[in-house]
Design goal:
Structural class: alpha/beta
Number of domains: 1
Protein name: Spore photoproduct lyase
Oligomer: single chain
CATH topology: pyruvate-formate lyase- activating enzyme
GO molecular function, one term: DNA photolyase activity
Strand content: 15-25%
Keywords: Lyase
CATH architecture: Alpha-Beta Horseshoe
Pfam family, one: SPL
Helix content: 25-40%
């Protein structure tokens, strides 16, 4: 098994005020010691100086850029239906998955941003918890990001996990495609953080999920996390329909079956998302990845309006039923105690 090396940014930009925070200074010193090129920027939302003559080149260079700033907005965005609020620890990630929805939502700003005022962010989370108690308030830490790649540089994810470990009425959840989880294994989580992994069939990862660990490496990381006592969950997404799809996804379930200890299977959750795309996403994908082999032929899809008012292309009804039947059956076969949260 090939092990993916940690993300090392090619360049970093700092907001000047980020250096007024202890974490900002720590990150600056850490990146300097790593030999990362550092420049200043007036705002983490308006970064100039990332090279690239074409959209594809600019995208790839942005994915190798880290921007360090201060989260200025105190209000958290909602995150229904999976949680009550987003917990803003960072934005974007260094991976280059061809189908990723962040390619459209982040537009020309796909660079990874981290926020150094973590204490202020967690203070705001505390206020939301106090407002809703005695009900449990859930926070999602990966709505617009993958928090793992920069964790070894920032440490903010562990800080958040331990914050929620002390909360009687607060719970935390996040999802990752990455495998560098060792620094989180000794966190005092008290079972209050659900650690979720985004998984896919091995050949899908190889073809479309660039700059991410392979299937076996992710599954092994999930086993480590489960043995550390975290509640775990898995997003299988996006699921693709092709001649060998059932055999490939069965291999994924079999690999998980070998890694997960028995005690976590009583509280295991699966989320299944089939491949879909919008016209805007397709156009953006074709600009960034002009040689993509993603199946985006409208003749084999159904156009469907989503909950946010825009349309997307999904698999037709018969294919969706076949995929749902097969995937939920595989989950029940390997993990009969697990819960399927949804299939879309």
């Amino acid at each position: 098994m090939t092990v993916m090396l940690p993300f090392v940014p090619k360049r970093a930009f700092f907001e000047p005020q980020a250096l007024h925070y202890p974490l900002g200074k720590e990150i600056y010193d850490r990146l300097t010691a790593m030999g990362v090129e550092i420049a200043m920027t007036s705002s983490h939302n308006r970064v100039t100086g990332i090279p690239g003559k074409t959209t594809g080149e600019a995208f790839r260079e942005a994915k190798r850029t880290l921007v360090v700033g201060v989260r200025k907005t105190t209000d958290f965005a909602s995150c229904k239906p999976s949680a009550h609020y987003q917990l803003p620890l960072n934005t974007s990630c260094p991976s280059m998955c061809e189908y990723c929805y962040l390619s459209t939502t982040l537009g020309r700003k796909p660079y990874m941003r981290v926020y150094v005022n973590i204490e202020e962010v967690l203070d705001q989370a505390q206020k939301y918890i106090e407002e809703r108690k005695p009900e449990i308030t859930f926070f999602e830490g990966a709505a617009t990001s993958d928090p793992i790649p920069a964790e070894y540089i920032t440490g903010v994810l562990k800080q958040a996990i331990e914050f929620f470990g002390k909360q009687e009425f607060g719970r935390f959840r996040f999802v990752t495609k990455h495998s560098h989880v060792d620094s989180l294994l000794d966190a005092k989580h008290n079972g209050h953080t659900r650690f979720r992994f985004s998984l896919n069939a091995a050949n899908i990862i190889t073809r479309f999920e660039h700059a991410t660990p392979g299937m076996e490496e992710r599954v092994e990381a999930a086993g480590k996390v489960a043995r550390a006592g975290y509640p775990v969950g898995f997003i299988i997404a996006p699921i693709f329909y092709y001649p060998e799809w059932q055999a490939d996804y069965r291999q994924l379930f079999a690999a998980l079956d070998k890694q997960l200890p028995g005690h976590v299977r009583q509280d295991l959750a699966f989320e299944f998302i089939t491949h879909r795309y919008t016209n805007r996403a397709k156009n953006q994908i074709m600009e960034i990845f002009p040689a993509t082999a993603l199946p985006m032929d409208e003749e084999h899809r159904k156009f469907k309006y989503g909950q946010f008012g825009y349309g997307k292309y999904v698999y037709n009804k018969d294919v969706m039923l076949e995929m749902k039947t097969a995937m939920t059956a595989m989950a029940a076969e390997f993990f009969p105690e697990a819960k399927t949260e949804y299939f879309v």
